[in-house]
Design goal:
Elements (H helix, E strand, L loop, with lengths): L5 E5 L3 H12 L3 E5 L7 H4 L3 E2 L13 H14 L13 E5 L2 H16 L5 E3 L1 H7 L9 E5 L3 E2 L2 H14 L3 E3 L3 E6 L5 E6 L4 E3 L2 E4 L20 E11 L11 E6 L2 E7 L4 E5 L12 H14 L7 E12 L6 E3 L2 E2 L2 E2 L3 E5 L5 H16 L26
Parallel strand pairs: 1-2, 1-12, 2-8, 4-14, 12-21
Antiparallel strand pairs: 3-7, 4-6, 5-6, 9-10, 10-11, 13-16, 13-17, 14-15, 15-16, 18-21, 19-20
The protein binds glycine.
Glycine binds next to loops.
Length: 385
């Protein structure tokens, strides 16, 4: 094992908890700091582990990372309790002819990347999922896209961390503690308590940019991209409503229906940049309308919850992951893991590995340098170790 370090991880969403878990598994001491673990984007997330069906055209530079992270998931889940992990695959459906053309473009992009996708006739799609509308214009299967229940996963990670002796501090981090030479030596909490650490990992989403003590030249251009998301209970007579995750494009708008083991489904998710951090009536209407276009029996479900949370977006839709430079090179003791936008749950194992490797002084593969958190800064000096 590498020399034992103490990591202070700020932020207890899936990303922060995953980093803490990976460090604890490697034998390091860990303290996680968050006033309300699992209550941010993790609380809303549908938990799709879907590098194939979430291959957005502008995000192809993310594919190697998302695929690697998806591959790491089974190992990442080792030793955790129930997480709702399901490997049944994702069915992608098009509503009208224009949606079919758009999804055919996506399928061609997926095939060009060597990803597994299987075109389905309407009959084949409905044989797989009898509740699908007979009016859909096209469908394909992404058998390698899986899903997890993020609320169950964050609870399982918190349990596992407590079992491994990690500290969970339910307070807000106010500032980085820095030595006279600029090294980050830990975190100062909102009550003035100081937590000393060898490595401080900033993994608190949009809050990362708000912390006092970050390098003055560091620009973390995070922006909130709100998603409305619904949880509905499927009456016994209709179970299972769907077995696979069903994603669709309905008159150009994306929607997904994700089945949970407890007899509920999660329907999401809008993308709003209107600054409104409460569920939007228009968003909820759009989700119910479009989910019903794919699966008409959605109208018969019981609406249990409407939630809204912000995804931490970045200008290039890629994460801010790794060390950051100041005038003398990389700031010792500081790691950043934020800006995961739509892929926080999926990318948690990759973020965990990168941060644990960096904390241990291991080299990070050259292709990950493109995700350096300081790539938008006024000066970008230093190099990833
Ligand atoms: N990854 C799904 C979403 O952000 O809505």
């Amino acid at each position: 094992m590498a020399v034992q370090k103490h990591l202070a991880v700020v932020g207890a969403g899936i990303v922060g908890l995953g980093i803490a878990w990976e460090a604890a598994r490697r034998g390091h001491r860990v303290t996680v700091i968050d006033p309300a673990p699992g209550s941010g984007a993790t609380f809303a997330a549908a938990g799709m582990l879907a590098p194939v069906s979430e291959l957005y055209y502008q995000e192809e530079q993310l594919l190697a990372l998302t695929l690697e992270s998806a591959r790491r998931y089974p190992d990442f889940l080792q030793g955790l309790g129930s997480t709702g992990h399901q490997t049944a695959g994702t069915l992608v459906a098009a509503f009208d002819a224009a949606d079919r053309l758009a999804l055919e473009d996506l399928r061609q992009a997926q095939l060009a990347q060597g990803l597994r996708v299987e075109q389905l006739t309407s009959r084949e799609a409905r044989r797989l999922e009898p509740a699908l509308s007979p009016a859909l214009s096209g469908a394909f299967l992404a058998p390698d896209d899986h899903q997890i229940d993020p609320r169950a996963l964050s609870a399982a990670l918190l349990d596992a961390l407590a079992g491994a002796g990690a500290g969970i501090v339910r307070r807000r981090a106010a500032a980085l503690a820095r030595s006279g030479t600029g090294e980050v030596t830990g975190v100062v909490l909102d009550d003035g308590t100081r937590i000393a650490a060898d490595e401080t990992v900033m993994a608190n989403g949009l809050g990362t940019a708000l912390l006092d003590g970050l390098p003055a030249s560091l620009r973390l251009p995070l922006r909130p991209v709100y998603g409305d998301i619904l949880r509905l209970r499927v009456p016994q007579a209709l179970r299972p409503l769907v077995r696979l995750t069903v994603r669709g494009l309905v008159r150009g708008l994306p929607v997904y229906v994700v089945p949970r083991e407890d007899g509920t489904v999660v329907i999401g998710a809008t993308s709003r940049e209107d600054g409104a951090d409460a569920p939007s009536a228009g968003g909820v209407y759009q989700l119910l309308r479009d989910a019903q276009a794919l699966v008409p029996a959605v109208a018969e479900l019981q609406l249990e919850e409407t939630t809204c949370r912000a995804r931490p977006g970045t200008p290039d839709n890629a994460p801010l992951l790794g060390r950051v430079a100041e005038s003398e090179g990389d700031v010792p003791g500081l790691l950043v893991a934020t800006g995961f936008f739509r892929h926080g749950v999926l990318l948690a194992p990759a973020a965990a590995r990168v941060c644990a490797d960096l904390a241990e002084g291991l080299p990070v593969p050259a292709e990950l340098l493109q995700f350096r958190p300081d790539r938008f800064s006024t000066s970008m000096e230093g190099s990833q170790r």
